[in-house]
Amino acid sequence: MNQSADAGKLLLSADDLANLCSVSRATIWRWLSSGRIPGPTLRQGQVVRWSRTVVEEWIAAGCPEQVEARS
């Protein structure tokens, strides 16, 4: 999927997030395991999605390696 199509999404898949960060999908899962990226907003079965807003805030903050837990 291209970036213009991704721009309208409120929830991002691991593939979308990987494309946005210019890394592989495997890297997204490693970052998640190590706490480097914000946790997903939605987990239902095998469906995992991140909030575009949370991801954009994380990127705007300079992609800090230790993500604070959101309450």
What this model shows, in words?
By secondary structure, this protein is α+β, with helices and mostly antiparallel strands. The chain has one domain (3-60): Arc Repressor Mutant, subunit A. It is built from four helices and three strands. Strands 1-3-2 form a three-stranded antiparallel sheet. It is globular, with a radius of gyration of 11 Å. The model has no long low-confidence stretch (mean pLDDT 88).
Widest β-sheet, arrangement of strands: 1-3-2
Order of helices and strands: HEHHEEH
Average pLDDT value? 88
Ranges where pLDDT stays below 50 over 5 or more residues in a row are: none
Give the name of the CATH architecture.
Orthogonal Bundle
Question: What is the top-level CATH class?
Answer: Mainly Alpha
Number of domains: 1
Please name the defining characteristics of this protein.
single chain, 71 residues, alpha+beta, Arc Repressor Mutant, subunit A, three-stranded antiparallel sheet, 44% helix, globular
